[in-house]
Structure formats: structure tokens, C-alpha cells
Amino acid sequence: MSIDRAAGLSERAEALDTIAAVLPMERRDELAELLTDQDVETLRHLVNEGMGANTLRALTSDLAYLQAWSLAATGRSLPWPTPEALLLKFVAHHLWDPEKRKIDPQHGMPDDVEHKLRVQGFLRSPGPHAPDTVRRRLASWSTLTKWRGLNGSFTSPALKSALRLAVRATPRPKKRKSAKAVTGDVLSKLIATCQTNKLRDVRDRAILMVAFASGGRRRSEIAGLRKEQLARETPIPVDGGPPLLSLSIHLGRTKTSGAENDEIVYLTGRPVEALNAWLEAARIDKGSVFRGIDRWGNVSKRALDPKVINDIVKQRAAMAGLEPAEFSAHGLRSGYLTEAANRGISLPEAMEQSRHRSVQQASEYYNSATRRSGRAARMLG
User: Would you tell me the crossing angle of helices 184-191 and 330-342 to the nearest 10 degrees?
Assistant: First the structure.
């Protein structure tokens, strides 16, 4: 590696460190390799503009994928603005007909391009991409182009037609983010695997209980939670027993809230105790709440990557004797609403805690529980 290139990588890595709070920084060095100086400046500009952490994280992930794909497919970084021909190539590489691929090996993504992306960890599942993923990456591509003050061909009739025809040729049944909801009984089994006083058990118990009890928080919200977002509340009195600990979590701007809204949810009782136990054991008095733990039991100063929350759910499911492929971090979110329905909690009350804005979306989880045992499903029962 030349001295100039090494210096450039070092400068990009340092620049990425300045926006570490909203980037998957365990991949900092990889991003420094993939992204250009202008890419990093664009991301830093978006941070300064106040773009939400989740949106910026998604843009960064998509930009890294697009750069890796462009290098693998053309041998060059993404051109800005992108010509229409390259956009059409992207669609052809990602949305293709598996049946036609069997008789025409040249159909779809070339083997050498697929191999390069798979080796780098950008491709995991075989077959064409999900149409929604392709649309999202094209949208991210368009957004980044506009933020550079450029115009692209993202609304061209040729691209729209190619995308529409490609989607028809790649039938993929829509899958839930989590095949099964993590309802109260499942959650109890997961928590039962965290019964020791080892740091990892104390942390994972707090993650599971806080994520569920706070309304089924998204994995990005749990991974990005900071001590400064927590506030003690007056304990809740209980007849015939000691008052229950209570605290509020100030989520700030979330995926579904307005830019000026400070979303607040509450924890009461056991989840607060589990969270306090972790903060005390890990000696955390500021900064990121949930952090990595190395093999020697040292607690990192950096926040967990959102993917780790998903891994924890699957690991604990396996330890509980469940099928890990059937559960994910999103199962905590759907499980909260399903459990609320099972316990007779009204949908509006459950949504106050889950912070769903769409009744239609929330009721998909809520109604599946009530419909299964309702009178309409037992006409002949």
C-alpha cells in the first residue's frame, strides 16, 4: 500500500470516528476502504443536518453495499451522478428469475461479482434480492445523489419499467421479520438462561427485559440507548407490598415520530431492577448503556451494534431449547403487542408504550392474537 493511500485511509477512518455514534463502527476500517473522501464528507454533512440515526445508519449501509457492488461489477467506484445504464445493471444483477438462471448461467448477477460480494460479507442468502431491498437501495442512492447537489436518472421511464418487470419475474413471498413473536411465555424461557451473576448474563437479562417491557423497542433503539436518556420516576405504590421502581426512557426522535418530538416510554418493577443491576455491575454512569464484553470480562466503551441484539435473542433461544431461526429481535416488538392482546390490554393503551403511529400496523400483531381465540374463529367450535 502506498504512503498516500495509507494516509488517505487513516484520514477517512479518523473522519468516521467523528460520527461514530450513528455508524456501525465495528466496520470502521472496512468503510474507510470502501468509501471515498467525498462519501465520508456527505455522511458528515448529513450528521450535521440532524438526520436521524436510524436513517443515517441505513444510508451508510446501503452506500457501502453500492460501492462494493460497483467495484465488483465494474472495477470502479460509484460514479456521481450515476448513468442510467449502471442503474439498469444494478436491477438486472439483483432482481432475476431463478428458473431462467437454471438454463442461462449468465442471467442475473455474474458468478465473479457474487463471489466477491459474498467473500466480503455483503451477500449471505442465495437467489435474487427482495424487491423492497432493491427499492430501498435505489432510494438511498437517489438521496445521496441529491445531497451531493446532483441529478440522477432514478425517475427515468426505462428504470421504472425495468424495476416493474423484474419484480414480476422474481416472486418472493413476504416474510415476517420474526417468524414467531416473543410473547411472555417465550420471554420467560429466554430470561431463564440468564440466571448467573456473570456480566454477559446480567447484560442480556437487562436487554431482553428492557426491550420487551418498554413497548418492544427496535433493536437500534436498544443498542443506541444512553444513560442520559434514563430518568428516575416516583415509585409506583402497590397494595400490600413495597412500591415498584419506575423510570422513563427519553427516546428522542424515533423512526415514526416527528423531528421535534421527544418520545417517552416507561419501565416499572423487574425491568428497572434488571437494568440497574447491569449498570451497577458494568460500572456505567454515562454514555452507552449496552456495551460489548470481551472474553476476559472487560466492558467496552462502545455501544453494541444493533445486529448484536438480534444475535442475543437467537443465542438465548437456542440455549432455551427453542429453534433460533424462528426468533429475532423484532419478535420482541411483535411479541409485546401480541402479549398485550392476550392480557386484554386495549390497543390504544398498548400503542402508547410501543409508540406505533399506525393502527393498521400495530393491529396486525394485536389482532392475530384476539382473532385466533375470538368468536368469529369459533363459529363451529
Answer: 130
